[in-house]
Amino acid sequence: MSFNPEQFIKTRGPWHFIPDWDDLVDPDFDFKTETQYNKGWEKQSYAHELISPPPYDGILVSKVVEEKSVARRKRIRALGVKGALRVPQDFPVLGDCGAFGYIDEKIPPYSSADVFDYYTAGGFDFGVSVDHLIPSPEFSDREFRLKITIENAAEFIKIHTREKPRWIAVGAVQGWNTESYGECAAKLVKMGYTYLAVGGLVRTKNDEVRKIVSEVRKAAPLVPLHLFGVARPQLFDLFPDYGVFSVDSASALRRAWMGSTDNYHTSDGSYCAVRVPSPGGRGPLKNLAGSELSSATKLESKVLDELMKYGEYKSDISTLENLLEEYEGLYVQKGKSRLEGYLKTLKDRPWEKCMCPICKSSGIQTLIFRGNNRNRRRGFHNTWVLQQKFIAMREKYANQEN
Ligand SMILES: [Zn+2]
Fold it and tell me: For residues 331 and 303, is the Cβ–Cβ distance under 8 A?
C-alpha cells in the first residue's frame, strides 16, 4: 500500500516517531547459553519486526547518523529508506539532517539541493529543511545561525515547489527564546510550509518548552507541528492543547542501558534492571585476570542461573540476594550499591505484568542489565510502554471531542 503524506498530515495525532540509530537485536539469541546466532543488519531484527503493531507510529532518519556508516548509506541508496528499515511502504518516515551532528561547525555541511536529492532518492515521506542548532540562549552566533536556518528554509521550499516531489517539505524552526522561535515560525509559514518541525528543545526544561511551543503555535496557528526529541510523558498535556502533531525521542529506548536506575519503564513508574556485567568483557569487570577472572566467571554463571530459576519460581529471593551482593562486591564501591533496587524489581516481577511481546517471550531476561540482546530488548519494551501512552492520549482526546 502506498502512503499518502498529504492525507497523513490531516490526521489528528499526536504521533510517536523514533529516531533510527540502527537498534537491532538477534531474534534467536539464546539467553541460557548466551549464544548469538545472527549478526549484522540482514539477520538481526528491529523493534518493529519483533513487536506487532510497531511500538511507534513513524521513524525519523537523520542524514548525519546514516553517514556514519558506509553500509547504511549504501543500503538507503540501494533499497530506499523503507527497504533499509524494513518497514512497509505505508509506514511514515521523516528525514532530517541531524543538526546535533554538526553543532560545532560554523555552517551546516549540507546544501538544500543535496538534501532535497537525498530525500527524493531515498523515498522519504517528509523532509526537513537544513537547520543549524543554537546551543544556548547566550550563544554569540545565535543571530547568524537563525539566519542560516531561515535562508535554507526559503531555498528548500523554492526547490520543492519547482520539482514537486511526492514527499512533503517540513520547515525547521529554531531560536534561542520564545520570541525568536515565534519569528522563525511566522517566516516559514509565510514561505508556504504546511508542516513545521521545532528543533533545539532536547535540553530545554519542560516549562520553557511549553512557552516556546505556545509562541510557535501563535505564529503558526494552523500548521501541524513536529517537536524534535521531546516525547516526554510530562509534556503530554501540551500536545493536544497546542496541536502538536508528532514528536520523537529515543530516550525511553536509551534509558534501558544509559539510566542509572530507571531502566525498565511501566505505565506509572520504572524499575532498576539487575546488572550482571561480564568478567573480562566490556564494563566494570574488564580488568580481571587469572584466578580473579575465573572465580568471577563462576559466580557470574551462578547469578545468571539463579535469576533464570527465580523467573521460573525455582529459586527464592534470599539466595538471589546473597549472590547479587557477592557479585556487586567485585566491582561496586561502598555506598553505590543498587541491591535495594534489584530486590524491589525481583519481588515485584514486573515482566509478568507487562503485555508486550518482549516481556512475554524473554521474561525475567528483559530485566537483566547485560549486553546488547538484553539491554536493547528492554529498550524495545520501554518504547512499547511509551507507545501505549500515546495511544491512550489519542483516545482520551478523541473521546473529549465526541
Ligand atoms: Zn514488556
Answer: no
Q: Buried b vs exposed e over 88-102: b needs ≥16 C-beta within 10 Å?
A: eeebbbbbbbbbbbb
The closest of 284, 251, 266 to 344, measured between CA atoms, is: 266
- pLDDT in the model for residue 243: 85
96 tagged catalytic: yes
Catalytic residue, candidates 26, 57, 96, 125 = 96
Give which of 336, 343, 386 is closest to 367, Cα–Cα: 343
Whole-number Å distance, alpha carbon 357 to ligand 1 midpoint, is: 7
Ligand 1 centroid distance, CA of 388 (Å)? 11
d(CA 151, CA 261): 44
pLDDT tens-digit map of 360-402: 999 999 999 999 999 999 999 999 999 999 999 999 988 887 7
pLDDT score recorded for residue 1: 64
State the burial class of residue 130 (Cβ atoms within 10 Å of its Cβ: 0-12, 13-18, 19+).
Answer: buried
Residues of the chain with pLDDT under 70: 1
- Strand blocks (E) in 311-396: 368-369
Q: What pLDDT score was predicted for residue 108?
A: 97
Domains and CATH numbers, the chain: 57-249 (3.20.20.105), 264-371 (no CATH)
Cα separation of 112 and 4, whole Å? 24
